[in-house]
Design a protein that fits this description.
The chain has 715 residues and is an alpha/beta fold. It contains 17 helices and 29 strands. The strands form eight sheets. The chain has a six-stranded mixed β-sheet with strand order 1-6-5-4-2-3, with helices on both faces. Strand 8 and strand 9 form a beta hairpin. It is globular and about 80 Å long.
Length: 715
């Protein structure tokens, strides 16, 4: 039957679900949870029934199913006693939809843009309402959701970054009424939780894909232990750097320079609500006997991690390094390395070895066109959050070291704010005397000889552009591939001797049309157009009958065979990175690679690697972190997983400094070369070095060996 999951879907779903709980974490907890068995539950909140699996736009995988929190609890045997509240909230959503459509139209008019483009990624604010909190149960759960997506940024308004008056009132009231109460955050990014200081249990469930509700039920019953860590600093918006120039203007200036995320909060001594790297679980751990050894500029921290609680769990040990203030101004500390333990039973212990290269901490000096390490103390810290570490020792450089000599790529360098920060000192030293040998890097053009002299100018243009999109409604992304229905695009297919390479959207899985009719080698897309469904209400009433053919699934014709293209949904990018588990990230990539092979996809438009510069970026949920090291490591692991399937590859994205959605086609980002190299390009450097995406293999795949067209690639 068409509604049944295929063996491949079941297998991949089980693989993804195996460690989804590692993407979750407690921001606060007491001993009220986990529960010992299913019971009656009073369930509230906008995400209880309308749980969000991931944000909108290109990463919204057309999944076979989605398990809400309500469904997940019922699957686990819980009895929901608040069906009347949930039904009443459904009616609130229906009534607030009209106001939302009007808001989008007014916003588009004010910006002088198309209402359809404005509606793309424009998320409805959570409405205010007054529904009595009636529920006969000893346990209460409130699921708070927020959505965002491609095309628009989030807003500093109630119902988005801020909580609504209704949410604040109801959550605080439930905390007073129930001894067992948990606030569950089904969100893709930061929200301001400062009005909820009295809430004792807050679980960051995040957006985990199709299995979100089932995973929550497992966490609630203690079948699994949430052991993630934050990949961003959570704070009030007014506490973020005032130098961050952000919005829909044509020119955006990155005045904050390298002071992004925790690097800013730590350097300016501003206490956030929750620090980068922070996360609680059902377990507690002790990090003992840390010791650093140094071999040249290669450092290794060894330590013992012991589970001092009664519940099995995992801990992530994080290494931070504070640099001396010398020729260049420095941030207070940088994440240098991290490692997650295996599952430790109660009382269990594991010895970890965590390595990093001192040269990787080098700062970029535009004056000397080089990466340098200033002389002085490099203070090494060990802990389980950026604000919860202890000093291990200092690595002392007697002289400044030039690590790499390169060339400036900017003619004019952005002038940023100038501050001076004092470096911490330490009495325990590990000596290092820097040598004067440097790595010389010269940027030269790399020649690729495709021997395409026989092609006409039009053929060369088409080869570069790919299959041309149609006009009007068919030009929507996801409608560009003829070979694989629903894929984002493909190379030009009408030049003899060249195979068609197909790209699929990502990065939460492959985005394809789900129902395909096939007959005599031809295929027809039977699926309803998801983008048109989202935009339907914004079209004039008189045109809506015509549009129904786009939002109504087509019927299978006589003699046609049905092919299903359901794909596995990964956790959103931020959620996946919250696992701090490189093996799990590689597993997710491996799952995608297997489905690329099945459906004929050559390139996956993922991983999304843009830095979380500002919590309002509408697409932050697709990306991983405010930290480039964590971003690069997770991205490399995913790519390595995909590349386990021969011939399948990733397209690491997006354009660097693509850190806002509004006006994204026209905005001009002004970034210093130092910030570009140390923050926004660092993750790209890591993935290239650690994953070695093979351009040669993919390009050769495009050549039909039956012709005399040759390919000569010089690395």
């Amino acid at each position: 039957m068409a509604d049944e999951l295929s063996p491949r879907e079941k297998l991949n779903a089980s693989k993804i679900r195996s460690s989804l709980h590692e993407c979750c974490l407690f921001l606060r907890k007491n001993d009220a949870f986990p529960l010992h068995k299913p019971t009656k539950i009073a369930l509230f909140g906008n995400g209880a029934r309308h749980t969000i699996k991931g944000g909108t736009g290109s990463s919204d995988v057309n999944a076979h199913y989605m398990v809400s929190v309500e469904q997940g609890l019922e699957n686990a045997g819980f009895e929901i006693t608040t069906k009347r509240w949930l039904d009443s909230y459904d009616q609130v959503l229906v009534e607030s939809r009209k106001q939302f459509v009007n808001d989008v139209k007014e916003s588009a008019k004010a910006k002088n843009v198309s209402v359809y483009m404005e509606a793309f990624g424009y998320v409805k604010l959570e409405p205010e309402y007054n529904i009595p909190l009636v529920g006969d149960a000893g346990v209460a759960i409130y699921v708070l959701s927020r959505n965002s997506g491609e095309g628009n940024d989030r807003r500093i308004e109630k119902g988005d970054f801020y909580l609504t008056d209704t949410e604040i009132r109801d959550i605080n009231l439930l905390q007073k009424q129930y001894s067992k109460f948990m606030l569950v955050l089904n969100v893709g990014g930061v929200i301001d939780l400062s009005p909820l200081n009295e809430v004792e249990n807050i679980l960051l469930l995040s957006q985990l894909g199709s299995e979100t509700g089932n995973v929550f039920a497992d966490i609630l019953l203690g079948k699994v232990n949430p052991c993630g860590k934050l990949t961003d600093t959570w704070a009030r918006y007014e506490d973020y750097s005032p130098d961050i120039d952000f919005g829909g203007i044509n020119n955006t200036y990155y005045f904050e320079d390298i002071f992004v995320g925790y690097k800013y909060f730590d350097s300016y001594k501003i206490s956030p609500l929750y620090a980068f790297g922070f996360g609680l679980s059902y377990s507690e751990f002790k990090i003992e006997r840390p010791k650093l050894t140094l071999d040249g500029h290669a450092a290794c921290v060894k330590c013992d991690v012991t589970n001092i609680s009664k519940i099995a769990g995992k801990e992530t040990v994080q290494i931070y390094v504070s640099e001396p203030q010398g020729k260049l101004r420095k941030v207070y500390q940088k994440l240098a390395a991290f490692k997650k333990t295996s599952l430790l039973k109660a009382g269990g212990k594991e010895s970890l070895s965590i390595s990093f290269d001192l040269f990787d901490l080098a700062s970029y000096d535009t004056q000397s066109e080089s990466y340098i390490l200033d002389k002085g103390q490099y203070v090494v810290r060990v802990g389980n959050a950026s604000n919860h570490t202890r000093v291990l020792c200092s690595i002392v450089l007697d002289n400044m070291v030039i690590v790499k000599k390169v060339k400036n790529m900017y003619k004019n360098q952005l002038i940023t704010s100038n501050i001076h920060l004092e470096s911490p000192s330490c009495s325990k030293f590990v000596k290092y005397v820097g040598n004067t040998e440097t790595e010389e890097i010269d940027y030269k053009d790399i020649e690729y000889d495709y021997s395409l002299n026989s092609l006409t100018d039009d053929e060369l243009i088409n080869l570069a552009l790919g299959s041309q999109r149609g006009d009007g409604l068919s030009s929507f992304i996801g409608e560009s591939s003829m070979k694989v229905k629903g894929a984002a695009g493909e190379t030009y297919s009408r030049i003899f001797g060249y195979k068609t390479l197909v790209m699929s959207d990502g990065p939460a899985g492959l985005r394809l049309s789900t129902h395909i009719g096939q007959y005599k080698g031809k295929s027809r897309d039977l699926s309803a157009n998801q983008f048109m469904i989202q935009l339907y209400d914004f079209f004039p009433t008189m045109s809506q009958p015509f549009l129904k053919k786009f939002i109504t699934p087509k019927k299978l014709r006589k003699n046609e065979e049905l092919k299903l293209q359901y794909c596995t949904t990964l956790p959103s990018g931020t959620a996946l990175a919250q696992s701090w588990n490189l093996e799990y990230a590689a597993l997710c990539g491996d799952v995608v690679g297997s489905e690329m092979e099945e459906f004929g996809i050559d390139f996956w438009l993922a991983p999304g690697m843009n830095i979380h510069r500002n919590p309002l970026c509408g697409r932050n949920f697709e990306y991983y972190s405010e930290d480039p090291l964590l971003t690069g490591k997770i991205s490399a692991a995913i790519t390595n997983g995909v590349q386990k399937t021969k011939g399948c590859g990733t397209t690491i994205k997006h354009f660097c400094a693509n850190n806002q959605e509004e006006n994204r086609y026209f905005v001009n980002a002004h970034v210093s070369e130092r910030a570009m190299r140390e923050i926004y390009l660092k993750a790209f450097e890591i993935i290239v070095k650690e994953s070695n995406p093979s351009i040669e293999a993919f390009c050769k795949r495009a050549i039909n060996k039956l012709t005399d067209v040759s390919l000569d690639i010089r690395r």
